Automatic annotation (TrEMBL), chain A:
<protein>
    <submittedName>
        <fullName>Phosphate ABC transporter ATP-binding protein</fullName>
    </submittedName>
</protein>
<keyword id="KW-0592">Phosphate transport</keyword>
<dbReference type="InterPro" id="IPR027417">
    <property type="entry name" value="P-loop_NTPase"/>
</dbReference>
<feature type="domain" description="ABC transporter">
    <location>
        <begin position="5"/>
        <end position="246"/>
    </location>
</feature>
<keyword id="KW-0547">Nucleotide-binding</keyword>
<dbReference type="InterPro" id="IPR003593">
    <property type="entry name" value="AAA+_ATPase"/>
</dbReference>
<keyword id="KW-0813">Transport</keyword>
<dbReference type="InterPro" id="IPR017871">
    <property type="entry name" value="ABC_transporter-like_CS"/>
</dbReference>
<keyword id="KW-0067">ATP-binding</keyword>
UniProtKB/TrEMBL annotation, chain B:
<dbReference type="InterPro" id="IPR011864">
    <property type="entry name" value="Phosphate_PstC"/>
</dbReference>
<keyword id="KW-0812">Transmembrane</keyword>
<dbReference type="Pfam" id="PF00528">
    <property type="entry name" value="BPD_transp_1"/>
</dbReference>
<dbReference type="InterPro" id="IPR000515">
    <property type="entry name" value="MetI-like"/>
</dbReference>
<feature type="domain" description="ABC transmembrane type-1">
    <location>
        <begin position="73"/>
        <end position="281"/>
    </location>
</feature>
<feature type="transmembrane region" description="Helical">
    <location>
        <begin position="262"/>
        <end position="284"/>
    </location>
</feature>
<feature type="transmembrane region" description="Helical">
    <location>
        <begin position="114"/>
        <end position="137"/>
    </location>
</feature>
<feature type="transmembrane region" description="Helical">
    <location>
        <begin position="65"/>
        <end position="93"/>
    </location>
</feature>
<feature type="transmembrane region" description="Helical">
    <location>
        <begin position="206"/>
        <end position="228"/>
    </location>
</feature>
Amino acid sequence: MNSLISVRNFNLYYGDNHALHNINMDIMEHEITALIGPSGCGKSTFLRCLNRMNDLIENVRLDGSIVYKGQELVNSKVNVSALRKSVGMVFQKPNPFAMSIYDNIAYGPRIHGVKNRSALDEIVESSLKKAAIFDEVKDRLKSSALGLSGGQQQRLCIARALAVEPEVLLMDEPTSALDPISTGKIEELTCELKKKYSIVIVTHNMQQALRISDKTAFFLLGDLVEMDSTDNIFTKPKDKRCEDYVTGRFG
Amino acid sequence: MKNRIQQDFTDILAKGIFTFLGYLNIVFVVVICFYLIISGIPAIFKVGFTDFIFGTRWASTAQDRAFGILPFILTSVYGTFGALLIGLPLGFFTSVYLAKFANKKVKSFVESTVDLLAGIPSVVFGFIGMLVLVPSIQYVFDLPDGSSLLAAILVLSIMILPSIIKVSIGAIQSVPYEYELGSLALGANRVETVYKVLVPAARRGISIAVVLGVGRAIGEAMAVMMVAGNVANMPGIFESVRFLTTAVASEMSYSSGLQREALFSIALVLFIFIMAINAVLNLVMKKRGKTK
């Protein structure tokens, strides 16, 4: 397996606040990488740097290097639109647009220039199928996406992200707003998706990291404390702080 | 004990006064409604409904009198529509810019300017229109007189800007930030995000802005009276015209008999127009509540 994203000596500052300290990490192809750690440890911020969503935050300064498929992402003039097409994102709160289910999925392809009706139909169907929601919505593709349940909305958002054919999927606590059954479905789906995509998931739920991820990275106060295979992190962590966190002694 | 009774009494008194004042508002509306209907209907029947509404000649003081108000109705409709045609795109793009693209300094400066615009009395709009707009139109289009429907439309389009801008800004800003994130994360740029996601999501609020603009334009009297020429012609863009509002305002002071009654009927027609606009507004608002 190859390193798809390699992060070297990466630092992030919010004004004077040094929020991420010298992060080094390799994210592998076709794996699920979980980022865990207590609130405010910088894991979501880090995730946003992987598709340049950090550009939206004012007063941020970066240094170091993040290389994705030979492209330097830090402080570079990378084509952000193409990058985000290739590195998709799913958010904490399901955020379908106020339009029909069909138009939600077709939005991304349309932005990137797909106009042909039958091509769009095909993309919509296959994306919904990949996100395991097609059977539930196939009879109401024209009705508003806001009428779906929270769990369905989140799977729709995953389908929407898949519709632009990304290679990497960044998931920012995708199940924290969902009930256990919907969470189970999303986890199952995520495991299925890693065959085709590489996934980085931020989660507060350590059981979730344990259930679905191959690698786990533990963040604390802006440091990447430890990163290893998920089994090692949960059974024989090297760092005391990591051990305390995964065994539930703080966090 | 005495204290307690006093307190109860104050409560009851206060409640009574507030209730009375609340109902007083309703009384005003009902009285105005009934007064308009009662005083507006007779002339319609005396003139004849079709002759009144669809008659194209208004000559209230001539030897052979005619009370056709179609010119006023059409002028009001065209004037409002024209004002919307100019004011809506202008106001809409301004609000998109202010809500999503302008930096904070520019935004607060422009917003306070728009507030100022909303506070300018209509007679001032009319005055400026009379002194600047009417002569300009006369010069540019080489007309004998610049007072025209065009002048009225231009003045109205500026007068409806504040309500369109303020309501549209609110509507665009109330779209959740997550929508924006979702769109950007798919590789859309800011302009695509604003026009393809935020504006469609805000369309109900924007349609409220449109209805408010229509209400403002159709009810305006003073400014249009000063620039429209105030002649009861059938409307044409360079024609001197008279609106429903100005028809009432310009003759009321010297009217008598059937003429006076007909003016009340015009007011009634205007009132029905405005009620219809309000009904549409309520409908749009209700729909909005449902989908949320």
